Amino acid sequence: MSAPECHRVAVLVRPGVLPLELGIAHQLFGNASTAAGDPLYEIVTCAPEPGTVRTGADFTVEVERGLEELERAGTVIVLASHEEDEAHAGWGAAARALAELRPGPRIASICTGAFVLAAAGLLEGRRATTHWLSADLFRERFPGVRLDPDVLYTDEGLVLTSAGEAAGIDLCLHMIRGDHGAAVANGVARRTVVPPHREGGQAQFVPRPVPEAGASWTGTARAWALEHLDRPLTLRDLAGRESMSVRTFTRRFREETGESASRWLARQRVERARQLLEETDLPIDRVAEKAGFGTGASLRQHLRAVLGVSPGAYRATFRGVRGGPGT
Question: Which residues, other chains included, contact 235 with Cβ-Cβ below 8 Å and sequence gap of 6+?
Fold first, then answer.
């Protein structure tokens, strides 16, 4: 099988860019590859004015490419700026260049990069997010955007936004997963040593007590559940692994993970099903059994609810990209 053509990603930076955000985009997309090791993305950095760009730290970066790179990209990622222009509508050339992309590439923002997308008119009437500290200012500037500051990221098809810097990791992995499947995204996450999947709807900030260093209230139960997803697991089963009552376990599970045990378990089962569909030739009913859905009908229902596709369609989409068995 021939290597797939690289998808070009243009990372747009402005004065005051945060180095971590620049590293996130290059590291994650740069680590995505086929089973044969061929890169899946080509990543370039561009700026409204090429040359020396100040960062939000005590050093600068040299950016050789200008805004013409946006027209050549399949994906554009707009990073935040911690200069005053974020609060004073100094989005200028970057916003104008994005507005002129017709037909446009997929465009995503990290943190307050959403201000640039909104200034370009790309978020009008759409659901979007940004860093929770900037939510009030964003609403004031762009009342026509359906801002949701309580989520990690939003996906409106060709326009995506994420919250603070770390949420940019989740958004990039989400895009990689959508392009090339869970196995590729999980491989990137493993190499980068980050969680492979946090849903976009997860809260930006979950106020909860911090457990003692090295302690985990529910870690043993979660690890056991991942090894036994094919079983009909109950809250009582999970709580028993931690020698807790169901009530105490339920409370501590949410405090530790930010979601209910049932939602976490359903998400893990969907991820297991995706992995099996991508990496094996097992019949759909057998995939459903091993992922803990019981029947093919139940798997179809859950996969359509999460991904909008049938198991067969999902397998057909991603098996060829990875170059795995059956391609």
Answer: 246, 249, 250, 261, 262
CA trace torsion 154, 156, 158, 159 (10° rounding): -50
Tally of structural domains, the chain? 3
pLDDT digits (tens, 9 = 90+) for 279-322: 889 999 999 999 999 999 999 999 888 777 789 888 887 665 44
Q: What is the pLDDT of residue 7?
A: 94
Phi/psi of residue 257, each to 5°?
Answer: -110, -20
User: Do 244 and 272 fall within a single domain?
Assistant: no
Q: What is the CA radius of gyration of the chain?
A: 21
**Which residues are CB-neighbours of 29 under 8 A, at least 6 positions away?**
9, 40, 41, 43, 172, 176
Distance CA 236, CA 223 (A): 16
Q: Cα–chain-centroid distance for residue 39?
A: 19
Range of the domain at 249: 219-258
Here the CATH number for the domain that contains residue 316 is: 1.10.10.60
Q: Per residue in 35-45, pLDDT tens?
A: 888 999 999 99
Phi and psi for 226 in degrees, rounded to 5?
A: -65, -25
CA-CA distances (angstroms) from residue 241 to 210, 230, 238, 244, 256?
21, 17, 5, 8, 16
Q: Are residues 49 and 167 in the same domain?
A: yes
Q: Is the pLDDT of residue 215 over 70?
A: no
Where do we find the tokens 């990875």? 322
Report if residue 60 sits inside a domain.
yes
> In the chain, count of helices (H) and strands (E)?
13, 10
Task: Say yes or no to pLDDT of 153 above 60.
Answer: yes
Question: Which token pair is 253?
Answer: 């599970």
